[in-house]
Amino acid sequence: MERTEELAALRDAFEGSAHTRGSVVVLSGAVATGKSALLHAWGEQLCHIGALLLTASASRAERELPLGVLEQLLRSPGLPPASAERALAHLAAQDGPVLAAPALRGLCDVLRGLAEERPVVVAVDDAHHADAASLRCLLYLVRRLRSGRLHVVLTECAQQKTANALLGSEFPHEPGLRQIRLEPLSKAGVAELLAGDLGASVARDLTPEVHAMSAGYPLLARALIDDHRTGNGPGEAYGRAVLGFLHRHGTAATRVARVTAVLGEHTSPAPLARLLDADAESVARVVHRLTVAEVLYEGRLCHPAFRAAVLDGIPSDERRALHGRVAQTLYEEGAPAIEVAAQLVAADRTEVPWAVPVLREAAHLLLADDEVETGVDHLRAALRRCGDAEQRGAVVSALADAEWRLDPAKVLRHLPATPTAAGDGLPPLPAHLLWHGRVAEGLDAIGTLIGPGAAGAAPVNAADLDTPWLWGAYLYPGHVKERLGSGVLPAPRGTAPPAVTPELQGAGVLMNDLLYGAEDEATAAAERSLNRYRLGPRTVAVQTAALAALTYRDRPHRAATWCNRLIAQAAERRSPTWQALFTAERALIHLRQGDPAGSARRAEDALALLGPKSWGVVIGLPLAVAVAAKAALGDVDGAAELLERPVPQAVFETRVGLHYLAARGRYHLSTGCYYAALCDFYAVGKRMSGWGVDLPGVEPWRLGAAEAYLALGESLLARQLVEAQLALPMPARGRTHGMTLRVRAATHEPPTRVGLLEEAVSVLQECGDAFELARAVADLSAALRAEGESERAGLLARKARLLSRRVGGAPASADDPSDEAYLPDAVAEQPAPPGPDAGLTGAEVRVARLAADGLTNHEISRKLCITVSTVEQHLTRIYRKFHIKRMDLRAVLQ
Asked: What is the pLDDT of residues 138-147, one digit of tens each?
């Protein structure tokens, strides 16, 4: 058990005089150091050895009750009835608050008689609260029975013993007095206490934290033990214990602790005195007492859990009022805005004229330090206190930007419910309107910010327009160009002067590139923007545009490096929105690096970071990339499931909608729905042409349409599309050029095809797209086999298989040397279901089923985009495996 040393000291004091004379022992210590528990434990041991134990417990409430403690002693259960009657009779004979000499002598005789039979122990708990009359009687008995076996044990609070003159002045002079001082438990003492209740293994884990939260006081430590049994942390029992602990220190200590808890940080007696409306000297004494008791440490409460318990114990109305007084005091003393604002937020409805500016300043500092949630709380508190429309508009705008960093769906409540409600005191929020698909309102809001009649003048708050302009150009190039062309909106300014917005230098170049796709300086401007500035609210749109510029110019590896850094910065700056946006961009870059497996994973990660409502129209990007990646890997079921997710109709008016339509077209290609694929690819082309951004680097829709035409046997139409794409600007040795050469080769006869494919392989090797390279190598293998170069064709087929494995495709069957088996789309398809045809490869099953349906070899060749020779080889192996003829295929496959 705890307090073993002190218990041993009590035993020694008693045993040394139990049979010869009396003794006086005073257990002294701070509040809640375990004095009462020790006294109780000692009393139990005395009862076991036959001593007569008389007990009483004094209290602050009964201090003015004369002889109250003495009456408790005389009514102790262990006192023999006859002796109790005589003693109480002496007590009842007195009319006044003080016992007369005859009564005292009578009591003395009663106790002397009892002490002759066995030791008599008088135990008074919290003796510093005892009434003066009872203490005088005890002092009389101690002095008259020194030679007897009367033992008196008192407990006192060291900080409060001066409240009782007799206890502090007379008892200490008694001969044979033994004082035992109790201090808070050490870590070893706490460990012993925990081990006794929870076991040694649990004690090892909990001791450091319990000692810190309890400051070594058994009262608090035992409360934490009770909470541990019912939960995993300080709870209701601990809260009650903290409040009781402070109550035992007195009202003044409780008030000081409450104000200190509200302040939270280091404080001194002077501000505490002002807040408590008390004199500084008395407050300083209380602070000193609590510091000695280790409740306060360097002006703070000893532990956050202790502080939380104190705060929870303050009634809500009183607590809000106290926070308001603290805010006022801190503001008058010139405290930092963050400290004042924290108190204003807790005060809830404090109406002072300086509240909104202070809250806005604090929110700005917190957001800059990436304390986003706290900054949002401060702006919401400012919004509740806004008085005029102008002030409210500025706060709503700042709040919307801050909430967007956490969850764009939260911004919806700040947007007008309908376009006609835009003027109902709500601020224009163009970037957020554009994000959520309300393009017309968003562009109108830009015009509102510019101001009426400002077409020929410099924009008002021009620096604040860069972000909405960039979002508009990135998401809705067609709409923005239409507004600019019609003069509804003035042209945006160019590069911002360094003195105004240095972090947005290059914004004009990147915006023009997004709108027209012909900005020669876009790549350099993108690199500068990404290299120069840290991710932040003002730069997120610029950096998104910069990534787009690099990605659409076939520089995915450079874009990947920068995007990885931006994802890390977004996580550091605690913005799920930024993190999701750049993770989706990284998924697109993975796809253009020839890594569909990595692309699918990144896209799924992005979708998990935000809910569908939060993505707005940008949800089209991660969905598009995931669909395209799964289609490339042959996971058509996974792609179909993603395509079933609803998307806002406005997605199809955006740039990300181009990627979505193209991905859906790729899915239709992988499932053999070629006419549906053509519809999607031509929808992409129509939008890109209408918007004036028909560049293959953005989305090479002509290649997808050409592949659909080739599958339908329309090679002439496919060739026309490929030649049209070659006439458009694209990097000479980039990924898009290599893809174009591969599809172009499929529109020519074998002799010409080999040269085009060799060039395509060379280009794709340089740009590092393993997926497209695998397709080109497989096509080259097939072309060489058709030309009779079987040995080289076999080598290239093995290379295609290795490349397919690298990008996440399933390995081709080792006994299937055909070219078609090594195409990434083919090798990644799901294996054939078990059944009669389980002995066939996936490619053989597809050919067999079409042949069983009555298609000719030429028709099968066109439908599966393979050569007639490959179809014949598949059918020959099928016939040999099952010893059948063509007419028996349907029976075998059933």
From this structure: 888 888 887 7
Please tell me the distance from the alpha carbon of residue 127 to that of residue 231, in angstroms, as a whole number. Answer: 37
> Which among 154, 156, 117 is positioned nearest to 139, based on CA atoms?
154
pLDDT tens, residue by residue, 511-546 = 888 888 877 788 888 998 898 888 999 899 999 999
Listed residue (587, 562, 600, 601) closest to 656, CA to CA: 587
Q: Please provide the DSSP assignment of 538-584 as one string.
A: TTHHHHHHHHHHHHHTT-HHHHHHHHHHHHHHHHHTT-HHHHHHHHH
d(Cα 433, Cα 451) in Å, to the nearest integer? 18
- CA atoms of 256 and 295, how far apart (whole Å): 11
The SS3 assignment for 247 reads helix
Spatial separation of the C-alpha atoms in residues 495 and 317, rounded to whole Å: 54
Concatenate the DSSP letters of all residues of 147-215 into one string: TTTEEEEEEEETTTGGGSHHHHHTGGGSTTEEEEEE----HHHHHHHHHHHH-HHHHHHHHHHHHHHHT
Question: Residue 498: what pLDDT?
Answer: 42
226 sits in which H/E element: helix 218-230
The angle, 0 to 180 degrees and rounded to 10, between the axes of the packed helices 540-552 and 507-516 is 50
Neighbours of 703 (CB within 10 A): 22
Beta bridge partners of 152: 24, 122
- Give me the phi and psi of 233, to 5 degrees please: -170, 180
d(CA 291, CA 298): 8
Phi then psi for residue 386, to 5 deg, are: -65, 135
Give 177's strand partners. Answer: 24
Q: C-alpha distances in angstroms, 414 versus 70, 404, 427, 826?
A: 72, 11, 8, 50
CA dist 774 → 230, 595, 785, 870 (Å): 61, 11, 16, 18
At 122 the three-state DSSP class reads strand
Whose tokens are 């993770």? That residue is 583
Residue 785: CA atoms inside 13 Å, Cβ hemisphere, count? 21
Query: What is the CA angle 280-284-285, rounded to 5?
Result: 125
Contact 138, 70 (CB under 8 A): yes
Q: How far apart are CA 687 and CA 588, in angstroms?
A: 20
Instruction: Looking at 712-827, list the stretches that DSSP marks H as alpha helix, in order from N- to C-terminal side.
Output: 715-726, 735-746, 750-767, 770-786, 790-806, 824-827
Question: Bridge-partner residues for 706, per DSSP?
Answer: none
Beta strands across the sheet bearing 23-29: 52-57, 120-125, 150-157, 23-29, 177-182
886 DSSP assignment: G
Q: Model's pTM, two decimal places? A: 0.74
**Three-class SS of 459-521:** CCCHHHHHHHHHHHHHHCHHHHHHHHHHCCCCCCCCCCCCCCCHHHCCHHHHHHHHHHCCCCC
What's residue 270's pLDDT? 82
Residues in CB range of 503: below 8 A, 6 or more apart: 532, 533, 536, 538, 539, 542
